[in-house]
């Protein structure tokens, strides 16, 4: 019985991070209908910011969160201004090619600048923590990552759903022409969605570097799961992505306990079931 | 209608003239200036670090043959170039497989058809070596592998594929013969195998199950996990629940680090962790104080290490050159690809020709004694499956922050520490 609880808890902790990785992706899609294939690579850059803050300035990855957030938010806006803006409203295929090209470019750049070596941080605050209750263990890095990820996801959800600017963001997503008649500048809202997408990836990266090694391809796994979480949760829904991320994490953990080889397959299988039974996703409305 | 036909006739005759020219070129084999060899490795992607390391081993071998190195006692090192080909130089053509079997196959083909290489070496991951060597076989070009360990590679009955390095059966046998000796008086009766779900992991696990059966050892569980796993909690829980005498692991570096951390998190360790390589061979596995502490007492199989180099002056010299040139230490992988490339070049020189069929024949007859290599082997000599019968593996344990050879006893520098808790 302890094993089941342990697996569910481990799965939830992992799922929290999947959720955060999916937030940026779902925001950009919800507002602009653009699929950012480089979402995982943003997380990878965030991990590198966390790593270099630690290795160059001796900053604990937890303290590096603000730095990673700002750096990636700037990267997000630059990407929007530089390459997304020009193809907006054009053939959807060109948008796919642009973000896919960005994925290839960022991976190549990371390998060129920082070598393909796997790197990791040591002696961190989170690494020194460990909780145990009734035989159920929680590692510090996992705990910190999950709590941080959920807080950040909740903050973004609050911002998008409860604030005036957030509602402007949604309005620009639903009807750019109507929104601009209401005095909302869609271009600014688009830039804002990329800023948020970049910022959340920065937070995710700085949290993840506590428990994973970083290399130029570190984003691949998170990118894939983020896509599944977004589709499962309903494109454009922050809450849906969070729920889906947690669900994937739990399935991953529990199935892993009984049929280790099929853990990933099972996580993807729920996605298949949802696509067939409820194509709009758990929380989607189209 | 006449014009297209005339056009066709002109193109066809031009092609014929070109073919005749190139035919002339290759027939004048005695004045070869340059021998082109393809080097396939995953130099981007998840295994890029290992891929680059492997590639450097191959490049260094060519460089030593091309230059004059009277101080190195390896065949072909003393004089510049290949003496039997009028001092021809080796030109290595690297290609990136991205660690993808499909890319590996198409790159192997491109190197032969476009780059005109006369032989190939690589490609690290067994799954990629499978497709790359199949492409070379189709085009009848020799492929010499040093660093892929799946047993099945040399069981496919290929005519042009040769492997200098030991395979997982050899490595597995080293593990089981150590277990038979009852390390530190501990008998091993039940084991668990934890492995990746790719060709390397699945085939390695199969070999281990077979060896366990032959040695009267029970396999309690055979756990596969995704190569892309981001969490190994469930797997470690299962290992803990079955409580084996030893755990066999087939993993890559990212998951090896994760595994060691997960053991720490659960505050659990089986009495022995025996790793088949890949992940355990990567310097990143024990890089830094946290990782080194998590890996204390782990055992890995290897075919080369600095400990081995210290016992062989030539290996020591080569590893110093490697360090100086690339700023990184030589590893098992670069040593294996170095040896595969040296073997291939020796065969080309023995053949005295760049004709792939003649190189293949020379490979079949090659016999390099152990002292003429940088490996702790009996030498390089291929059996009927084109597997080097002189290759063998050694076992190392991570003790006091360094890897030390613990088995076989004739090359061991330290006593095995068992159970693993005693090493912490």
Separate helix tally of chain B? 13
* Overall pLDDT metric of chain B: 89
Q: Tell me the helix content of chain B.
A: 40-55%
Percent helix range of chain A: over 70%
Radius of gyration of chain B: 23 Å
CA radius of gyration of chain A: 19 Å
Pick out the low-confidence regions of chain A. Answer: none
Explain what you see.
Chain A has 286 residues and is an all-alpha fold. Chain A has helices at residues 2-32, 39-57, 65-87, 92-114, 140-162, 164-174, 176-181, 186-208, 219-233, 238-258, 263-277; strands at 130-133, 136-139. Chain A has a two-stranded antiparallel sheet. In chain A, strand 1 and strand 2 (136-139) form a beta hairpin. In chain A, helix 1 runs parallel beside helix 5 (140-162) and helix 9 runs parallel beside helix 11. By secondary structure, chain B is of the alpha/beta class. Chain B has helices at 2-27, 48-66, 101-113, 126-138, 168-180, 199-214, 233-242, 253-266, 289-295, 306-309, 313-326, 332-351, 356-364, and strands spanning 34-41, 89-96, 119-122, 143-145, 161-163, 190-196, 218-225, 246-250, 273-275, 299-302, 368-369, 379-380, 394-399, 402-407. Chain B has a seven-stranded mixed β-sheet, sandwiched between helices. Chain B has a five-stranded parallel β-sheet with strand order 2-1-3-4-5, sandwiched between helices. In chain B, strands 11-12 form a two-stranded antiparallel sheet. In chain B, helix 6 links the parallel strand 6 (190-196) and strand 7. In chain B, helix 2 packs parallel to helix 12, helix 3 (101-113) packs parallel to helix 4 and helix 12 crosses helix 13 (356-364). The relative contact order of chain B is 0.13. The A-B interface holds A 3, 6-7, 10-11, 14, 107-108, 111, 115-120, 122-123, 127, 130, 132, 137, 139, 142, 211-213, 215-217, 220-222, 224-225, 252-257, 260-261, 263-264 and B 43-46, 48-49, 51-52, 197, 223-226, 228-231, 233-235, 237-238, 241, 253-254, 257-258, 261-262, 265-267, 282, 284, 287-291.
